């Protein structure tokens, strides 16, 4: 090998090493940012939920009011249960978005005043929203999540003192969960 070929070979190795280093830095910065991006997504979700929390709570409380035979959504902390459920890392992100967007749509339709409407006005607004395919699906999702909270195992933060089960003269499934969520 001649000296000029040797130096060409050395330059090629340097270029390859430089490319590998560049790739390493690029991929390292991308993967290093994933936790920051997840935190931003998480913070954005919390912000979005806070914007619609009172609307969701008002819908839940309308569906499961106080002074009925079943425990109320408010007494069972159903809104907190819904938040913790949909914010869990295993929960479908599209459904999470659907819950938020559906509440925003109800707010838009009711000009941000759904929470302050009378019970009759809330009923009318929800019946009107239910007439749309989107609204019907959203109300169904809210109903499902609320029922899960009221009648689920108390380990998940709702069904306080097993009141949901007691109202149905029932008991939870066996065996009872030992931890709140399955680790993924």
Topology:
Layout: H1 3-63, H2 78-86, H3 93-109, H4 119-130, H5 133-151, H6 163-167
Helix pairs in contact: 1-3, 1-5, 2-5, 3-5, 4-5
Features:
6 helices, single chain, about 65% helix, mainly alpha, about 180 residues
- Largest sheet, described in full? none
Low-confidence stretches: 33-39
Q: How many helical stretches?
A: 6
- Give the H and E element order: HHHHHH
- Radius of gyration based on Cα positions: 26 Å
Q: Mean pLDDT, nearest integer?
A: 84
Q: Could you say which structural class the secondary elements and strand pairing correspond to?
A: mainly alpha
Q: How many strand units?
A: 0
Helix content: 55-70%
Number of domain modules? 2
Distance separating the two termini: 57 Å
How would the global form be characterised?
flat
User: What is the strand content?
Assistant: under 5%
Give the gist of this structure:
The protein is mainly α and about 180 residues long.
What does this structure look like?
Helix 4 (119-130) packs across helix 5. By secondary structure, the protein is mostly helical. The protein starts with a helix and ends in a 17-residue tail after the last helix. It has six helices and no strands. The chain has two domains: 7-38; 54-184, no CATH class. The protein is flat.
């Amino acid at each position: 090998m001649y000296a000029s070929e040797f130096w060409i070979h050395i330059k090629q190795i340097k270029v390859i090493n430089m490319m590998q280093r560049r790739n390493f830095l690029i991929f390292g910065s991308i993967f290093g940012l994933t936790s920051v991006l997840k935190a931003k997504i998480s913070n954005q979700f919390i912000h979005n939920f806070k914007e619609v929390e009172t609307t969701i709570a008002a819908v839940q409380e309308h569906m499961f009011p106080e002074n009925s035979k079943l425990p109320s959504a408010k007494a069972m902390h159903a809104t907190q249960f819904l938040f913790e459920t949909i914010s869990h890392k295993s929960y479908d992100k599209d459904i999470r978005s659907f819950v938020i967007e559906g509440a925003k749509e109800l707010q838009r339709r009711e000009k941000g005043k759904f929470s302050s409407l009378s019970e009759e006005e809330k009923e009318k607004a929800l019946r009107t929203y239910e007439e749309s395919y989107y609204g019907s699906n959203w109300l169904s999702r809210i109903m499902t999540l609320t029922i899960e909270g009221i009648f689920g195992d108390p380990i998940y933060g709702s069904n306080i003192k097993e009141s949901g089960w007691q109202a149905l003269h029932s008991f939870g499934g066996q065996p009872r969960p030992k931890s709140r969520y399955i680790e993924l």
